[in-house]
Amino acid sequence: MASDCESSSEDEEDEEADILDLESDEGWDDVEPDVEQLEVQCLFDNRVFANVASMLQHCKDDHHFDLALLQKGFKLEFIEMIKLVNYIRSQTQAGRLSPELSTKAVFKDDRYLYPVLEDDPLLYSLHDVISDERSEDEELANGSPSLDVKVIQASKPEESLPRFRDYEQQLATTQEALETSAKQLQLTEKALEQANICTDSLRQQLEETTEDGPKRTFNKQSEYQEKDDCYSGIFLHGNIQEISLPIAKVDVIISEWMGYCLLYEGMLDSILWARDRYLKLGGLMIPAHATLCIAPMAEDECFYDRVGFWKSVYGFDMSAMSESIERHIDTEIVLGRNICGSTDIFKSFSMYSAKVEDLEFAGAEFKSTIDKDASDGMQGLVIWFDTYFSTTPGFRMGPNIPSPDTFLERGEGNVAFTTGPFGEPTHWAQGILLFEHRKGKPKEVKTGQIMTGTVGYKKGTAPGSLEVSGEWRMDDEEVMKRQTWVLD
What's the longest Cα–Cα distance across the chain? Predict the structure, then answer.
């Protein structure tokens, strides 16, 4: 009997052992949890990575792009990071492998809230990118000695060397970030180059103006002083119409008053008031002249992102959402290859003779010859401005206005720059005026066709805002199309 009990006990133990023997039970594979495999596509090429960290490191190593440092430099919040990622992806998909990133304005549009890649894992991980950067900042702000301790504990040279290489790489990455930030100053750098010429010309003009008398300065209390061998100055803070200058007339008025589409923000009103009130006879206005330019645009991506997208959103026609978009002026960089017709100047302003009432106008005519077939249609108009500087008091441009490049070649001391799509990008970008296309796709245009129309500017209801009206037709059309846009 005892033998039977022992045998039974051994059988039960064997059964328990078999149950716990996971290696021999193939069925257990079915209950193991599924592990989600991420596929994170690079921002600049088609390579795919198993995690976000590897992809971002690849962007640093192969494309010299540091998303975290750009976030830190621009101080981007989560929503802005989403826009940035979708902006970069949209640009690279369009073949622009070096997207314009000089300013946050290039990706401010809400259309960049919509993912370019479906279920983009990078968008789900942006909180980690932001939090990692913030944790590093907090660590430094709190005086954490962690970095110093790591260096001190690496007592052997062979241990220290890799760490110093890491720091060297960090310095190199920081330098790249600084270079990226410096792109924001592209206009400033160009303006400084121009300002060197302008400053030299200005200094010469000032010396000629004041060579028979002492050089005047005013201290912070606006007390009159005279000095024989130097210039000095003060800052007076306030609206020019509301403050009083401690002098009756000035020799020069310098101002960077230009806004988007030239007249946005309405700063020129104050400059013209100051000119009439303070500029002496024979005084100098810097800049001296500005022109408004226009050309037709054919850019499929621009049209689709803003308008075409809404025609089928997961099968639903949401075209009504595009109505406000087509009435709003976008300020973005337009590439020269997307301009499909010749440029025309539709308005010109002399800083010596312009009046405040001239800043609102209607019926300014333009004409453009289509120089590039646009089988997918002409989507809208693009507006920008050119600015001219001259050391000649009372400068008058004349009826045949040269391009900025030609103007530079015509005389010593001449300075000019363009904010147009064929020049260096500036923070002003260009104003995009999309046509309404709710009744169909944009009309195809062919090389040689003529487009004529008019443009009007009017101050908007909001302070500093701008309302632009336009009418146009092609040479094969009898009826003018009309539309109004707002920049606010």
Answer: 135
